[in-house]
Amino acid sequence: MVPAIALSIGGSDSGGGAGIQADLKTFLALQVHGCSAITCVTAQNTCGVNRVDALPPEGLTAQIEAVLSDLPVAALKTGMLLNRALIEATAAALRPLAIPRLIDPVMVSRAGSVLLEADAIEAYQQQLLPLAELITPNIHEAQLLSGLPVESASDVERAAAALLELGPQAVLIKGGGIPALRGSDYLLQRQASGQWLRHQPVATTHTHGSGCTLGAAITALRAKGLPLLEAVEQAKRFVERGLRFGLAIGAGQGPLCHWHPLLESDG
Fold it and tell me: What's the rounded Cα separation, in Å, for the pair 134 and 136?
């Protein structure tokens, strides 16, 4: 058996709910072999992040090169990059590649926690976004990258158009940070009209890692050869079901369930 292979470049979540751990669980659930290159090690659990230690950029480059020199990676995604040096190292490694590249610009959590050093936004705009097939910012990240206020559906559409001007082939703004847009994401591709992709909002507090999981699911499905729109639609369904089976673990916000495709029924 020769499976499709996907690579995740991002941070490690010691609580297992987001980051590299969520990405690898998603790849496995979708029957894709997952590889990883770790940018940061976080000390966190369901209650929050206690510490972040960035790896040296040379260590990140070595991980990416080790994977790409041996394994036929069919698609990749980036997650938490934290600082300018890690962004620059990632961009240098991605620039020669001719595979689908999803950039999840992990800057601010849905709750508003900053996950990026202040001088790194420009590096994202100038070096990484032009390399992306798709970028997947949340509401806070769309505001930071576009420089526009994002408080409504029409604001989301304007921000997506502004972000497309920065160079990616497509933009998917995740609407969950606005209560009225829960379950709704806006996809804008070059040479195509924008479209709202919606699913029924899931009433759960256990949503940790949902953004990482969405990006990983899109990446896995692109690695398997699905067209971008179909990959996004199927990934949204994967996340919706994962939220319905959210894991009530720990004292805080638990993660969604990544192994739900293995369950025999929804009951």
Answer: 7
211 CB neighbour count, 10 Å cutoff:
23
Q: Tell me the C-alpha distance between 267 and 263, whole Å.
A: 9
Provide the residue type at 264 as one letter.
E
Contacts by 87-90 with C-beta closer than 8 Å and gap 24+? 87/120, 87/123, 87/124, 87/127, 87/128, 88/57, 88/123, 88/127, 89/57, 89/58, 89/60, 89/61, 90/9, 90/39, 90/60, 90/64, 90/128
CA 223 to each of CA 43, 188, 230, 237, 264: distance values in angstroms, whole numbers, following the listed order: 30, 21, 13, 18, 26
Sign of CA dihedral 238, 243, 245, 250: positive
Query: Using an 8 Å Cβ cutoff, are 172 and 187 in contact?
Result: yes
Domains of the chain: 5-134+206-262 (3.40.1190.20)
Coil, helix or strand for 112? Answer: coil
Asked if 37 and 64 count as a contact pair (C-beta separation under 8 A), the reply is yes
Report the predicted TM-score, pTM, of the whole model to 2 decimal places.
0.96
52-85 pLDDT per residue, tens? 999 999 999 999 999 999 999 999 999 999 999 9
* Structure-block tokens of residue 182: 């829960």
Integer CA distances (angstroms), 69 to 63, 64, 66, 79, 131, in order = 10, 8, 5, 21, 20
Residue 44: name the closest of 26, 24, 64, 20 by CA: 20
